[in-house]
Amino acid sequence: MFTWRNFFFLVLLHSVFTGYVAAKVIPVRPGNNVQALIDRAKAGDTLLISKGYYKQHSLVVKKKLTLIGRDYPVFDGLGKYEVLFIYADSVVVKGLQVQNIGKSSMNDLAGIKVSDHRDVVITGNRIINGTYGIYLQNSKFCVVKGNYIQSNATDELSSGNGIHAWKSTDLLILDNIISGHRDGIYFEFVSNSTIRNNRSFRNVRYGLHFMFSNNDRYEYNKFSENGAGVAVMYSKVVTMVGNIFIHNWGDASYGLLLKDISDSRISNNRFLKNTVGIYMEGTSRIEVNQNTFEENGWALRVQANSSGSNFHRNNFVGNSFDVATNGTLMLNYFSNNYWDKYDGYDLDKDGTGDVPYYPVSAYSVITEQVPVAMILYRSFLSGLIEMVEKILPTLIPDQMKDDRPLIKRINLHDRNTPVN
Amino acid sequence: MRTIVKYIFLDLLRNKVVLVYAVILALLSFSLLNLDNNTAKGLLGLLNITLLFVPLISILFATIYFFNSIEFIELLLAQPVKRDKVLLAEYTGLATSLSIAYLLGIGLPVLLMAPGMPALILLITGLLLTLIFSALALLVFVLFKDKTKAIGASLVVALFFTLLFDGFLLTFIYSFNDYPIDKAVLGFIAFNPVDLARVLMLLQLDVAVLMGYSGALFKKFLGSAFGSFYSVCCLLIWVGIPLILSVRLFRRKDL
Amino acid sequence: MIEIRQLIKSFGKFRALDDISLSLKGHQAISLLGSNGSGKTTLIKSILGLVIPESGSISVNGKEVKHGYSYRADIGFMPQIGRYPDNMTIGQVINMVREMRSDVRAYDEDLIRDFGIEGLKNKVMRTLSGGTRQKVSACLAFLFNPGILILDEPTAGLDPLSSEILRAKISNEREKGKLILITSHVLSDLEGLASEVIYLQDGKLMFHRRVRDILESAGEEKLNKAVAKLMRSVSHGGEEK
Q1: In chain C, how many domains are there?
Q2: Is the ipTM beyond the 0.85 threshold?
Q3: How many CB atoms lie within 10 A of CB A288?
Q4: Which Gene3D superfamilies does this chain map to (chain C) (predicted)?
Q5: Which of A296, A341, A376 sits opposite B170 (nearest CB)?
């Protein structure tokens, strides 16, 4: 199994066997000119940075070095500058505290930026009050692990992303804790990468944002209280497994927003207390199975331009509305889901109901057209409307049904590794 | 006044209708909450019962009770006591009994099987509806001389608030959908205690969906404690106004 | 003790009391006569403050009825139909009224004793016969020893024995100087009790005379005959006007 420790070990082995036998450890103390020490060091050397405040920024690493901080030495961008710029392969940055990164509308200033190189490891750092925290561009095989990235952005314009990756491949984003940025994690043109076991919360826009990124996988992350949830857009073959989407509230706020996505898989996730669990627009061939949708406003909002998706063996529990759609045609398929609102019967005792379940509620169709009508939701009147609709269906697309709804809730939680 | 309340309460404690009411509520609560361990669904079921049956039963039972007490009220008024006191004592005794029936029937099972904020809000709405519709019954009692007409009026009042009002409101919303009517709609809601009670519960159960609607006022109203505060205040006013009106009118009523 | 001046009360178009003036004194048992709808009950209710008159005034022991409720402390009222909350016991009803009148310490419990109410204390009101409820009403009317007693058809549902007990009690109280106002449409009930007769018809006061005078002027020995004669004469006289 791949863990960061193994990887780190391999990187070390690699450096040992490629001939830098004379690697030195260079101690760095507050007051030293760090840039000068970096420049003087030879490729393969380690800078051991002791605790303290370093009023130094815009550091550039152009050779393969290992930077290790002891007790989080502080590097300060003074609210104006970038702090660390890595322009070499196989650099390791560990245990630093990087703070007060500058803001600029011209270019993206970052706490730690990696550009055009590979095998860089950024691990166990603290990045406080940054615009962009860790920034990877045009890079490969980099590892970003166990970093604590916190800021306090209030609007989208003046803020940056916690972990920002652009035009890269084969990245590993693990165990990071990210909050208070525009997007917690941002991927644009990134492929073959994995995002695992991160926590991304209270970001102004998305907890995780995918754009034009194919063949990626994100799993066992927790996304909570983000302005608009998680967005995956214009991408293919994305695997989303075991994540928790919780408490993403507001208009235009989603647990998971899918736009122009195809051939992807969403499994074993939990969507809890979001305004919309999953919003799908222009998606095709998505497998949605073994997920739990609990106490969301709408568990699913599937726009009519989405097609060929299968919703199989999911739990729908305590949602205000299970499914909403904007058209009369439904080209996605529901089977063997558990719907707590289902009140059919199972006379043949095969565990599935004998009459289909229609997950689109008539009143949700009405509120779709007339949002203010929501104020009458759960009234006797809205109940009557639902009842009439059941007898004389007129509002609900009639392909929109689960022919074999499960009678009992599927036990899925044991498969969901909760994030601490 | 406390004396009269006490004895009316003792009388109603042994009233079969009140007992049956409490027992039926309790049976419904246990069966709904036991169903497939989904407390949210159970609470919703109880909410529907609360919104539909509590107003109806409260106003009908109270109206009949007040009319059956006319001779007793006359007897009390032959004593040197103020009319206001006798009337309010009648109301208090009755409303207390119905509230206790509700608390035992729904409150006890809910607190045992689904404790939490939504359960608490459900109980508060149920109690307030009991108080309001008993007060409306008192007003009907004071306004009408004929018992049969009064019962008819009570039915109309209950039907109006549980169904007709919402029908008119929905028609209004549909007709003026293109205009900014958020504020107006929130204003209208204040005129129906059943809607206020329901909104109070919606704020507990469906915040997620309510937050999905744009419109600054709506969001501000529904997204904060203000919404609940507003609803509770309006509901309290709904208890007060029929009571004050009843007392005023009763001062001039010929028995 | 009770002064009524130019009392007028209408229900819609119907005039229930039409310019009634009466002066009622103590030491009297006054029989208020009249057919159904003649205004008897309205008059009683006006005195009790249950019906609010349009004009005119009533004063009880010098206190204006419309100015307060304290005057009622000196009135005992026995309604025509005694209806009580279904599940109260007789004991509870009596206790409740006692607690309401915490100002009074000395109770007149003669009727409670004579009717044997004590033994029925735990009976629930719902299960009682009309007669027993009448007895309870009578007990309550006399309980606080009021100076004025207003009894609406008191003997209507009572058995002869109880009726006799009540009658004895009434005459006994009259002796003590009380004013007792009794409505009735059964004349024979009043024999030997009434000292004055008030006759109402269609909301108008037809006459208010002492029994002795009535007997004398009619030349009859029996009150009911004399009253019937008098009624006939005033009714005809009224029509001629």
Answers
A1: 1
A2: yes
A3: 28
A4: P-loop containing nucleotide triphosphate hydrolases (3.40.50.300)
A5: A376
